[in-house]
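#data-curation
PF: Archiving a pair of folding outputs for the training set. Convention for this channel: one message per protein, sequence first, structure tokens after, nothing in between. First:
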Amino acid sequence: MSLTSRITIAASAMQTAALDLGSASAQLAKSYMTDLTDGTSAGQANRIFHDTRTLAASSSEDIDLAGVLTDAFGSTITLARVKGLIIAAAAANTNNVLVGGASATQFVSWNGGATHTVTVRPGAVFALVAGSADATGYVTAAGSTDLLKIANSSSGTSVTYDIVVIGCSA
């Protein structure tokens, strides 16, 4: 089984202003793209996990990146390095989705600390992408730095989110 992937982040905008004798505008069109071929070196990845998940009010889950996840074909995958991570909170959520801060064996190479978290508001997307020249990515190790905590920020309602993790087995 092989994997090829492309992770793209793009922004476009047009800013305009009325002037005394006309108008002015400034346009932005910028995209950032990382293509990954099959493998475990720089510019490569060979494992992917993706899912839509729902957390009950005030609940959380620890996503074990090393040895428990299954791919679309039902095969167990173990990630040694993460090359791309996308968390997208459903627009219909009332509560936020919190990423990070597992109580033990935290996946921290992306955020620098065991208690650090990122808030993904309803309808928002969080993306973390290693560049195509980066052979290391964001390291994870079974039993020591492999848990990515995802939490519902409050009570009252559940939250739904999409998760995509692209990485390497070695």
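PF: Second:
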Amino acid sequence: MSLVSFESKQDNKIGVITIRRPQALNALNTQVLSDLKQALEEAEKSKVRCLIITGEGEKAFVAGADIGEMKDLTREKAKEFSLTGNRVYHQVESLSAPVIAAVNGYALGGGCELALACDIRIASEKAVFALPETGLGITPGWGGMQKLIRAVGPGRAKEMVFTTHRLKAQDALRAGLVNEVYPAEELMAKCEELALSIAGNAPVAVQAAKRVMNEATGFGLWEAESLEAGYFASCFETADQRQAMGAFVEKRKPEPFVGK
């Protein structure tokens, strides 16, 4: 039985991936990573325009990697485990559609890293974020330190990693780690509302914008601007661009975007 589900909603405009291991606070073991990989592949094939990732239950988004599975790893096996997680998280980052993390509870260690791999993070008031690995004698292994620096700056990121201190939802909002915070009972509705707002725009343009912003992070300014110019130009080959700009000039309501 799969521990991760994918569901398309709103006439396939949006999709929801749910990690379903609530008895273990949705901790990530080898099976969950494998099932998440398959769910992401399914989401890509479905061509949803925006994806939401969340965890089952009221306590945890993902409470981290499964320590029971990790504690006796050899150096070689630990590197393999790290690379496996990194590959899955890279799938999240490179998914064509934007990805929203609906953080419904604990996002610790690998769970915080999964949220950081998403394009947008929306938290419930119950959400808690931390990278506690140094308290377990290891470092974060799934790209969390690199992404955390980009999200909150090096000073705050180092403080979180060195101290293992937890950030509650409102503190995470002030730090820039999350975009919005809502009451727990409103979280999924607000995430779906945001996803539909994204899905209402031209898919080719949204996907190109995501690639530009992701790919240009490590570039110099001129190199990043050149990349942006290339994707900008490619949008002018699409039917969506022609009809939307035509509608604007003609002062009429545009037709729904078709993704071509």
